[in-house]
Amino acid sequence: MTALSALSALPATAATTAAPVLSAAAPGAGLVQSVDWLALAPVVVTAAVGLVVLVADLFVPAKHKPLLGWLSVAGLAAATACLLPLRAGDRATFCLTGPATADPAACSYTADHFALVVQFLVLAGALVTALLSVSAVRDARMPAGEYWFLLLSSAAGAALLPASRDLATLIVALEVASLPAFALVGMRRGDRLSSEAALKFFLSSVTATAVSLLGVGFVYAATGSLHLSQVADRLEDVPGQLDTLAMAGVALTLVGFAFKTAAVPFHFWVPDTYVGAPLPIAGYLSVIGKAVGFTGLVLVTVIAFPAYSEIWGPALAVLAALTMTLGNAAALRQSADRPHSAVRLLAWSSVGQAGYLLVPIAAAAYSGRDQIGSTVAYALMYAAVNLGAFAVAALVARTKPLHRISDYRGLYAERPLAALSLAFFLLCLAGLPPGIIGLFAKVTVFRSAVEAGLGWLAVVMAVNVVIALYYYLRWTALLFRAPQDGTQAEAAPAARTATPWPVTAAIVLTAAIAVVLSGAPQLVLRFAAGSLFPQ
To answer: Nearest-CA neighbor of 50 among 159, 141, 210?
Structure first.
């Protein structure tokens, strides 16, 4: 990131300072590119702990490898805490300097309110994933050092992306978040499903990235800049002979981010990848992977490409309708007795939820960037409850590894608290009381479509919400039914199976967040009241 920014601000050297913005050195002393390390702290801490884990793995004896997991958990907690001093949202670094290039808005890294909220989502989600992974790494005999290094590296890239404010840094952050994820999906050595999922994820993602890079190249050729603010200004007045090139660049750039969101038709990798990946990584991809994609979409559409809103607005609206419809229809078709049906249902459900998340971004093309708050509010709700659902799935999988929906029948009789938690998570996803936060989040998304004049999209969303009620309520009801005769004998041993306390902590943490947000939804929904971006 530093090198990319330095290319735009030559000549420049590095100096360390805590100033919120960059400034030039004293006259006659040349230009000095100052670095705001406090603004960079969440990303730097995550990456640094990842490197420490990688090196420590060479020297730590096998019996002490679990310590690497706890070091990673501590590092993610510390990175999340680093967001507290930045809560004012007024810091930036790696900006253009010099008399000819100075532009206070052209910075490669900006820690504004939007970036901080998404970074909190990413780092807190990675922390929950790490808690779930502590026992998963040990039980599946996965290489600890590699696993934790890859997870921290991916989290660092995901935390970098929302603060990125130039196209080059965006693409780099996207790939830093994605490349380790390929390896994490295939981490279960000798597992055919895991290897197949990793290969499919890798090939499709690399193709989407190549298309996006081509789009970025076209945009740069048309505007002569990579900084989002400058791209936005120059796209307002593109010469006629470059207009087609600019439009093609805008369309192609969106492809990579649409892939990360699992928007139709870029969704085909999702179910097989989630089934083949370790459950904590499937949960990680469903939340942090989507946060990366939606953040990238928001930045390139709302900040960089507002001049072409007549292109990406209708396109995203159609993608939203197709995504929520196909995702919910596929989730509806999952058979309860089919192996991996529970994970597949969560996978297709995440595709449907991606459709809802696309609605406010499409609405921003018609009624302004204030609609983006609805996407952020919905993403925060979705992150908490979906990670919680995967946490309960990880708990159930310890005794029933086939991941069938039917395995959850009678869960309340075996594990009452886990069943109640999963029921609450599913009701939040469905948008039904007592999952008030899910209901309110859907209402804000629905309202954004109506206010933007997208009545047809609001109708499609309403129909899909009703369709989703069926499979969410069917799974919820199954939790409280009497166990089948064939599972009666399994109930007692399952109840006696010790539950790893990190898994319990992950369930309790996500359930507590969901309950608090349902009791005080204004903690999240205030983001939907106005723009998170400075005007």
So the answer is: 159
